[in-house]
User: Fold these one by one.
Assistant:
Number 1:
Amino acid sequence: MSEEVKKENTNAKDLTAEIKDLVVEFRTDYGIVQALNSMELEIERGKTLGLVGETGAGKTTTGLSLLRLIPDPPGVIVKGSIKLDGKDILSMSDKEMQDIRGKAVAMIFQDPMTSLDPVMTVENQIAEVIKLHEEGGMEHALTRAREMLELVGIPGSRGSEYPHQFSGGMKQRVVIAMALACNPELLIADEPTTALDVTIQAQVLEMMKGLREKYNTSMLMITHDLGIVAEICDKVSVIYAGHVIEHGTLVDIFKNTRHPYTEGLFNSLPNLENRTAELKPIKGLMPDPSNLPKGCAFCPRCDYAMEICKTEKPKRVYRNDTHYVECHLYNEDNIQEGKVSIR
Amino acid sequence: MSNTAAVHENEQISIKKKSQIVDVWKRLCRNKTAVLGLIIVAILVLIAIFAPIVLDYENQVIKTDYGNALKAPCAAHPFGTDEMGRDILVRVLYATSTSLSIGVVTVIVSLTVGLILGSAAGYFGGKVDMIIMRIMDIFLAIPGILLAICIVASLGNSIINLVIAQAVSAVPTFARVVRGAVMTVRDAEYVEAARAIGAKDSTIIFHDVLPNSLAPIIVQTTLQVASVILSIAGLSFIGLGIPAPRPEWGAMLSASRAYIRDYSYMCLFPGAAIMITILSLNLLGDGLRDALDPRLR
């Protein structure tokens, strides 16, 4: 597909959030760490985008950049644009950003054990968001806070307790209640279930799904768990070393996997049906982000690496309107053929 | 659905609601040494409040009676009398109010200034931190007692000047403690979460950062009251503290120094008063720290 057609498509979409060509560096004493390398991201209204990748791939940095909360120093946004509802947030004042945070965009943090203030009652913490963004004073905020607690399945009467009196799963519910308190247009969920055990994971995911439908919230689901992606996401971006290497709908990614890295992610999952099947983890580790390979970032770990991979960055190849991959294995002619493992 | 299951689970755990202050109080009561400290501090506070009301300053506290000078402890004078025939018990009790009130006022003043400077330095970091803390370092480089002597010597010998002198030398300590406490909390995930809901810096500092850094500040506050009382005693000892004839523990110690061989009880009682006050404040401070820390619940 040509670049122009692609552009028209973008304009037609109703995007809650859009990141284009974003480069974020962490400038430390030990060198420049490239956290995001021309990162691209699109979230359509009411849809959920899954952001999948290994530890250190830049998932959380992407989430934080949508709130403009990348720690500075050492984080620097070198170039690119971040748009929320079509408005560029990089040119906004601090005051405007404060109005957006919690109201238009809310974030669920990874670890509910540490993301709640230990010396504040949970209802006060939820009320704080409401008070910041809505009229009506403390009384109204507290009433709403208790409603939010009920909404996530915690009796409102327990609102006057402290976070340490709650279990992990309930704390995560509180964090979710806090994030949803002002009906945000975009919810960033940074590995919301990683710290929870599986039964609670299922409950929390089920709840998030229900709430998302109820409020038509767009969502960015940051995770490394492909099961969660399959459960909750509409589209998936696979990122590696701060760059999207494959993007598509659930069907595109799960049934028509193209990139060797995505393939590797699936192979790393245990297979319930075939217990004798050996796990095939991706060999090696993420490349040192302060010293990325010149060509394809995945090249040193790739089973299919060719000469060209070492020197040249792969171009984007579209399989259909929604699915693209950046890998030298593919070109316009062979992209339809099949998975790398079959070839 | 999962929600109803959770509600059900919650109902089974019936938890009595209690206010935070009651909670802290209960935990403080479990700590025997802290209760001892609290009782002594409470008694001292009562003495400090009622001594000036009950005792007649002109006739009982400062009136000299040379006929009764240097009497050993007896029924009429349980702590004995000093070289000018004044009752030592009365003077020790009266001095409680002087020492405690100066200690508390000084600490309130220096705590307020130290809180503002320390939290700004710790929270914002960078240049703000650099400038504030280097100024504090300059103050810390001057020995506290020397600074106090300079201030009292240049401004004159009065209670207000004493408070100023003590407060100036206590501010850097507070700023340091607050800064350290704030820095450990500043990067906590709940502070990041507060930023992510759009809270202003001032809201974050007062709602999230300071309440979570209270423990070391409280301990420092009680210790500082004790150390200010000690400093005042020290200043009075060298004659730069509370102007005579108002009784003050340090001044009484200083006066009794000359008689220590023959009339040792004269320095025993003011000395014991200083020791008990400081010990009880320290016991209370430690107990409060344990009681206030939500992680020890």
Number 2:
Amino acid sequence: MRCFLTILAALAVTAACSRAEHTPDWFSEIRSANKLVLASMSISKMATIDDMDFSKAKGFKQSADALMASLKVGDRVAAYSYDTYLKAYIDLSDLSPDDVKVDEDSKTITIMLPPVQTEFAGRDLGMREEHYRVTGLRSQINAKERAEIKEKMNASLKKEVENDPAFKNILIDRAKKQAVMYFENMFAGTGYTPVVVFKPSITLLPS
Amino acid sequence: MLILDVAGAAAGLFFWIKNSETPDNVTMRTATVRDVQGMVNLCSMEIYEDVPIKAHIGKRHIFARQQLRGSISFDLEKLRVDTVNDIVRVVLPPEIIDVYESTEPDAYRVIDTWNESFLGSDKFTVAEENSIKAKAKQQWLRRQYAKGTVRRARKEAVINLRDMLSGIYKLPVIVSDPTPQGAYHP
């Protein structure tokens, strides 16, 4: 009896521990910011789910998956997409009164703006289902699986943006044009011509 | 006895096939730029928050964790500015609250889905899941007003805008806020 109770207690402890492992940590933070957001880019990512074709399978795992898929009755094909947003901004806390110089002789105002930076603003909350066809004995695609697919799409997109500077360059160009337009409008009719200059970004080298 | 064995094996095979689907067979398409927009928005607050999503449609339930990233900003192209006696007067525009799912790893995790009925389906369609997320977003937005986050963001924006404009105009700047609790306060 004692032995049975000990085993039962041990099982209860194990179950409690494994539950604690899966309990997510709830994080919350509110940060003050002082950013001038000048441009935003939406980037679309699409992924498809389909059975592995045996002729295209590479390696043992893919071949095994393809073989498994050929045994299944029915099809399971779907395509999902969503957008991710990249934004370009300048940090206004790096802007000081000395960065604005007025030349009364030439009637120009030179504004030295901090360097344009980019960051991911986030991604769509939901997903778009571009195609869905599940037939025969195949299981429907569930919420957990979609979340896993979204996770993979996110990782892939971030890698693409990181490896291809064109994404950021297009956005930074647009942000710079927007800043020039804004300050030109701000001083329109004042008799002064604004000259917008962007400070170069500082890169710290490893010591 | 043999019939029972065969039936059991068939049922086992059926459930194994049904449950052996993995998201490994996913093909990624190259990311494409949909749109690039210019703007001049002053962002005074950023919010990073994990939110639990607990919802049900009929007897089907879902419990998930979503990492949100929000920001509160102000469209400076809509600023009302006038100058009286060498004092620049500015009115703070309505707030823009953006909220997205974070791009950090594991930003959306479905922890559990279940059905109250025995052997009932626990599947949610994309449309159902999207509408659950949209409702959760509305709740989150209401919370930002109730908690005073929007009020705080507007207060900070007044200071940030005053500092920025006084540096540029080289004149004293007064920024007034007609709706300190938020322009869309429910």
